[in-house]
Design brief:
There is one protein chain. By secondary structure, the chain is α+β, with helices and mostly antiparallel strands. Among the domains are: 266-607, TIM Barrel (Alpha-Beta Barrel); 711-779, Golgi alpha-mannosidase II (Immunoglobulin-like). 22% of the residues lie in helices and 27% in strands. Helix 1 packs across helix 8 (390-404) and helix 12 (546-557) packs parallel to helix 13 (579-594). The radius of gyration is 26 Å and the shape is globular.
Amino acid sequence: MIKFSAATALAAIFTLASAATAAPIATLDRNGAWVSVEAYGPNAIHVVIAADKDQALKGPGYGILPVNANNDSFRQSTGPDGDTFASNALTLKINPAPAPRVPSQGEKYFAPSLAPVGLTVKNARGDTLLTMNGWEMAPHEVNGEATYQVGASFIAPADEHLYGMGQNQESLGTLDLRGKVLDCKHWYDAPAGETVCVPFMVSSKGYGIIWDNPSQTRFVGAVNGRTAFQSNVGERVSFFIVTGDTPEQIYSAYARVTGKTPIPPKAAFGLIQSKARYDSQEQVLRVANTYRQKGYPLDVMVVDWFHWTRMGQMDIDPAQFPDAVGMNKQLHDMGMQSIISVWPRYETSGRYYNELAAKGYFLHHKDGAPVDGLPFRSDRTGALIDSTNPEARAWYWGKIKDNILSQGFDYPWLDETEPDLVPEGYHFSIGTGDRYRNLYPLVHVEGVAQGMREWKPNKRVLILARAAYLGSQRTGALFWSSDIQPSWEALQRQIPTGLNMTASGIAYWGNDIGGWQWLPQTTNATKAPLLDPSDARETVGQNNDYPELFTRWFQYGTFLPTLRLHGDRKNTEIWAFGKEAEVILAKYDRLRYQLIPYIYSQAKTTYDTGAPFMRPLWMDFPQDPNVADLGTQYMFGPAFLVAPVTEQAQTEKRVYLPAGADWYNYWTNEKFAGGQWLNVAAPIDQIPLFVKSGSIVPLGADIPSTATKQAITGITVYPGRDGDFTLYDDDGNSYDYESGKGTSQTKLHWDDASQTLTATGSDKALVKAAPGLVKVVSR
């Protein structure tokens, strides 16, 4: 048995998250309000405000990487108008302390006792980006702890638009957070679908605010001219301001503060097949073999929950999976990989419960007794491992490695990472569940990710995870929108939900294609379905429009960062919804694989810049006011505009083409000027899809999975302007890319005037072949 030595390393990592490694540029006294200023490069600055100087001098909280603090770009100056901190990217001015004065009669009773603090941030051109005009520390008691509600308020100009703040599924199409009030907390039971708190807000003005507090936080988005953050527990106000003229500049600063997004294994970009659940290895292998027999590409098979003998046994039931090692070998021989679900819960009769309880490794009551389920939601799945405890994290990873991954499984699926057992009113090892309400998904997933990296240092980490926090993007996790309904409404909600989640710095987001919850066997649809359900009765019963819904959802999923089929229904495979649906689903499965060279190149750009490649239109077309609140369509990389169909029996969709470019209909090659709405034909086999003029789209050969080396078989050019594309590739599995080893980059340039494409770069064979692979789109 390999001895696990990550506990000390993990403890060091998480200690870094709460201790600064460099002194701040300055700590200012504003009549008893202490303001600390620290930089993380030229366009990222950290501001802490507290009544206690020691609190102001404490380092940033969990999720932040204080090793990246760097004040070298800033210079400080002091004058009668306050203290100024300037770099070549931004200027921060902290207002001077106001002159003493006699308070008014009303102020004697109602004015805050805190000394006022104000600040302004400007960009390199001198434009005002942000003005803070208030802060708060209101004393109260939470979970037996004397603490404060802490917050800060900012002026919200009338023309400002706000995005991000994690995953909120309330919207059916709008994107802008302006005018909205959000409870930023992980909430599995949110009525529209699970909410996930990633407290990073991005403004159309060219800045973002990283709110450094893991307790439940209220976000007020430009309501009555005011944007505010209010956290339930804290002794200081701590936030970062990142600035940039482009999304890439803003997100590179976010990555500097919270961590880079690694490139996932290439298999993550292929089709991932899951179900709730495959209850035997025979089922898993039968499905995998059927994909190969039918010639449909597939990369990953997933074994979901209850493969164990008991909740918390952390084992594999030999009755269901008598030879897990052999099963995984067969999958690997077919060019597939495997993911297996691991839960953080332990029922009292399980083999590890007493050990973990004795060590204090569970979320617990004030008296130390483990919290055993949640009666209010009929949750009887046991106690929650306390992943805020580094020793508990190390123990948990060790059991995953020795008991589960050792059976040949490639990657873990860490479910219930919110956690599902709500920590409010209880206690973690590091403090109350109220104080650290939103922290769990970061420490839980990162503990396993760190263990995986130490165990197999040159095999990329991949983890399915259901929730996130600041910094979660650095763990190598793929996130999804939790247990959503199998309905047209749920599909409609996914589009704006995903766009604000990726705007929060979480680039790898997806959802359960088709919805997760149990599939009703009837339907309320009043229109005739566009696909024949008669040969899909085993799966859909009398839910006649579900094959249509599943097909539309799969079309959307083809243009998500990850494409994963899942759900609580008898069958989830692409042949399970009738012959008419199967033909279309197979078409999009193959299209997804043809686009992998394009998609994988976007993954490299995200690694370099932190910016998501599934992104709202405002990121690419900031000068077009029509896209500021448009959450029903999006860009997928620099080329594709995607407008999913989300209504039953819909065969035409209204689509907006942003100004500043011409656009080609992907299916017909028709060219349209930007800045207009179109009624676009959307027959059941077509998702409305447009390509921006000047785009270069490399296409890969048909392959059974990404385990097969994929040749470039075509380079499609959409003329109308000059264009560039950097085609990236590597071995798809190792971390050699971090040092540039074994990578290839081919720069493709389209000269529109001469109608020629040139290729340069390290892939000499492709450089030579590229001119012969070019197809220029025309009508």
